Automatic annotation (TrEMBL):
InterPro entries: TRAP_TAXI. Pfam families: NMT1_3. Coiled coil: none annotated. It comes from the Bacteria. SUPFAM superfamilies: Periplasmic binding protein-like II. Residues 1-21 form the signal peptide. This is C4-dicarboxylate ABC transporter substrate-binding protein. Keywords: Signal. PANTHER family: SLL1037 PROTEIN. NCBIfam families: TRAP_TAXI.
Length: 307
């Protein structure tokens, strides 16, 4: 009986020591996911922040964080080069980049805004001739779309004075009279545009007539979409729209991409609270990511929920 008690006590000590040893082992490092977005007042950043919060809450072994960038073209370079792990990009820039990224989803459509002062002389695209226009920061999807639009409208070259400013700087420059107009491509409502409306009278310029010329010369991804009065309280217009995608490195593990896709779809209502554009996500349109193929992990998720 004594021997049994000693053995039991020894076993208890061993168990405690083993438990202590286990407690002293360092916890595994979390998987870090940096999400390449855009300007702080653009949709990508708002969407990315909300998505990162969901990832961090639902995947304890992952730490996600949204990062400010110049947007689409830079995002594809960052993700494809391994500096960041996820990113948002317009579809029209993809043929100009390599194929080191894969799609998680088509998330919504970016609408091209051409913003001018309400008391200024610009009332149609042709009125930009000879004037100063911000076409977006170098490396942004806005810059690519805006320059293509100016080209098909015979406003390329030195026909307009080009300024390459990001969204926030463009809005500030318009307010100070340093530019006559600026372009921005994003899912409405765009926070910077809303803030500008509070500060001064502005208007949006009709661009829908240029969708077909853009499709013919550059890419069939372009479509026409409306910005109704209800978005900004401004006169409704039709404009050029461009799908945008959430992309990942082609080397990201399938299981992780599966989980990221699941969270994107399952929590789209929560994402929609952060920004209405994010709430337009749905599995049927999410898989339409041409010319970019879906990542195998994302494809597996969509297959798993297929009726």
């Amino acid at each position: 009986m004594v021997r049994l008690r000693v053995s039991s006590a020894a076993a208890l000590v061993v168990a405690v020591l083993l438990g202590m040893a286990a407690c002293t082992e360092p916890a595994p490092e979390p998987v870090r996911l940096e999400i390449a977005t855009g300007s702080r007042t653009g949709v990508y950043y708002v969407f990315g922040q909300a998505y990162a919060e969901i990832i961090n809450r639902e995947l304890p072994h992952v730490h996600a964080e949204a990062r400010v960038t110049t947007a689409s073209a830079e995002n594809v370079e960052l993700v494809g080069g391994g500096q960041m792990q996820l990113g948002f990009t317009q579809a029209d820039i993809l043929p100009t980049t390599g194929n080191q990224v894969r799609a998680v989803a088509r998330v919504y459509d970016d609408l091209l805004h051409l913003v001018v002062r309400a008391d200024g002389p610009v009332r149609r695209l042709a009125d930009l001739r000879g004037r100063t226009v911000s076409v977006g920061a170098p490396g942004s999807g806005t810059a690519i779309t805006a320059n293509r639009l100016l080209d098909v409208a015979d406003l390329g070259g030195d026909r307009v004075k080009i300024s390459q400013l990001g969204l926030d700087a463009s809005a500030e420059a318009l307010g100070k009279g340093q530019v006559d107009a600026f372009f921005f491509s994003g899912g409405p409502p765009v926070k910077a545009v809303e803030q500008l409306i509070d500060a001064m009278p502005i208007r949006l310029i009709e661009l829908g007539e240029w969708t077909e010329p853009l499709r013919v010369r550059y890419s069939e991804v372009y479509v026409s979409r409306d910005i109704p009065f209800s978005v900004y309280g401004l006169d409704p217009i039709s404009t050029v729209a461009d799908p945008n995608y959430l992309v990942v490195s082609e080397n990201m593990p399938d299981d992780l991409v599966y989980e990221l896709t699941r969270l994107l779809m399952q929590y789209r209502d929560e994402l929609g609270v952060a920004h209405p554009a994010a709430g337009r996500l749905n599995p049927q349109s999410a898989i339409a990511t041409a010319p970019l193929p879906l990542h195998p992990g994302a494809a597996r998720y969509y297959q798993s929920i297929k009726p």
